[in-house]
Amino acid sequence: MVGFGFDVHVLAQGEDLILAGVKIDAPFGTIAHSDGDVIFHALCDAILGAAALGDIGEHFPDNDAQYKDRDSSYFVVETMKLLTKENYELVNIDITLLLEKPKILSYKAAMKANIAKLCNLSEKRVNIKATTNENLGHIGRSEGVSAYCICEIQTLTLEKN
Question: 159: pLDDT confidence band, cut at 50, 70 and 90?
Fold first, then answer.
């Protein structure tokens, strides 16, 4: 089974830019109820979608004070618990980040390691791609950032390959 996730956040000067749990060196970051990590949010939606468990907003509403400024790794950990409870495991994850600047190549290894650890996967089963929006729209004007994620799940097995 596969699931697809998407997230988008507005960018503003003086905010932190957190992507897959990594603080990116940038003069701007996301405006959000939690830490605004679009990669982790899209990942949660992909996992929840694959297991037909709704979406991130149903499980962690952005109007709930307990999630204010929350580190988004919490959402991934809790989503993985839901997945395991339903007797599923992740097979692989593929993420595409849309961000005009800064370039994230030097951060990708740390991002991939964070995702693999939180999702109990080999790093070989996690892929992160990044692209710009060719200066078009809100992404191109550096007014926003978005992420797409697709994942595959299967019934929980006793052995991992």
Answer: low
